[in-house]
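Marked as duplicate of an earlier ticket. Keeping the data here for the record.
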Amino acid sequence: IQDVMVTSKRPDLIKRFYLALEYEMGHIISSTVENAKIRLSQIPDTTIDLSIMGEKFSVDLDKNMLISSIEGELQQLLDLIDETIEMAGLDHSDIDTLFFTGGSTRFPLLRDAIIRSLPQADIVEGDAFTSVSLGLTIEAQRRFGELVSAKMEPAAS
């Protein structure tokens, strides 16, 4: 990275990246960006403040910027939904329930696109923070039932 800094047209940006790596700021930056994404689900614009990197550094974002940044991935997701339904030998009209769980399903653009692709389906909400782990627990019980049950039972006194 230091070699790139020397030849870069914007060494200040490369230095900022280097410092983020050096001081292991990845989780802080990721969390800050995630929080901005959550805010943009509720309000039209926000600012990501990354001044933690030693200088005044912030980025103004609006909902349109977020939407344009994920349009390709959103279309890929919708295509995968179509492919999954087809692979299951079903039609879109056969899907009667959508189960939404996890943080991404709270993002209105994603949620609305899925609902538009399956408008006849009822919406069921899972707890965004625990339903994934609950589903994994249920699947583990299904696959490894006796083993999981035995390990979860309290020890005899």
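See parent ticket for discussion. The mean pLDDT is 86.
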